[in-house]
Amino acid sequence: MIAQSAAPPAPFRAQLLKWIGNKQTQAQAIISHLPARFGTYFEPFLGSGGVLGVLSPARAVASDGFLPLMEIWRSLREDKERLKTHYAERHALIVALGKRQAYEHVLRDYNARPNGADLVFLCRACYGGVVRFRKQDGHMSTPVGVHDPLTPERFAARVDAWHSRTRGTEFHHLDFAAAMSRAQRDDVVYCDPPYGDSQTILYGAQAFSLERLFASIAGCKERGVRVALSIDGTKFSGRKVCDVPIPDGLFVRETFVSVGRSMLKRFQMKDGTLEGHEVSDRLLLTY
Ligand SMILES: C[S@@+](CC[C@H](N)C(=O)[O-])C[C@H]1O[C@@H](n2cnc3c(N)ncnc32)[C@H](O)[C@@H]1O
Fold first, then answer.
1. Whose CA is nearest to atom 27 of ligand 1?
2. Does the global pTM surpass 0.70?
3. N or C: which end of the chain has fewer CB within 10 A?
């Protein structure tokens, strides 16, 4: 059943979570390449849900393989007041202990028992929003950020906005292959995977392989499900991603999505011009 349209969405910039690879600023460009009409929207590498939040689909299945993250999304859906309280309780420790001590206290609790209630505060308060985990023991290792985390009032306003924008969304803790196998004819899947081994440390020790993803995409295509795949341009060369060949004929179109100017280049260049130095993600489309 085709019921939804990906008409140009209104800008929506308020982020609920900070997450490496957040796509909220590129979301409108990505959405402009989704089919004009589709059934259910699937986002199997949800992270902080940058595209989901901007698209605000009438019907969606959103999932991620990282359990503490999905606990946050489930709280948003099932009991948003509880999510606000989780954040406010941890934020209150800043007044009692100071920012660094409060952060380290919550980090210790999280590492002793990984859970969404702590993670929601940690991702907002950690350095640069770079939630990453040590390889040897899986512990979150990011230090406290230099910024002041959102006040509980501002966070609560974001919870309300995101709650309303995801009212048609089911949230599940699922490996991407299980999530994608639920998609049916005329549904659309947007994939924003980690690329190769280098990112496993960022998202915890989850099994990810591009070969497995390509097999799931092929299965979707056979069932009449359309798939859009974001690929980091730097991991892409010719017909390979991170040395993994892209199966012939799987994708029929490729587009570039600007991710803004590269600040690194700005500082490296003597004349200060940024022409030709825009960083681009690629979007591969099966349709
Ligand atoms: C690049 S991030 C997605 C970022 C997202 N687009 C956003 O706006 O925040 C990739 C996500 O894939 C998840 N992931 C890694 N391996 C997975 C797997 N095997 N199945 C499902 N999700 C997985 C990670 O937990 C991470 O949240």
1. 47
2. yes
3. N
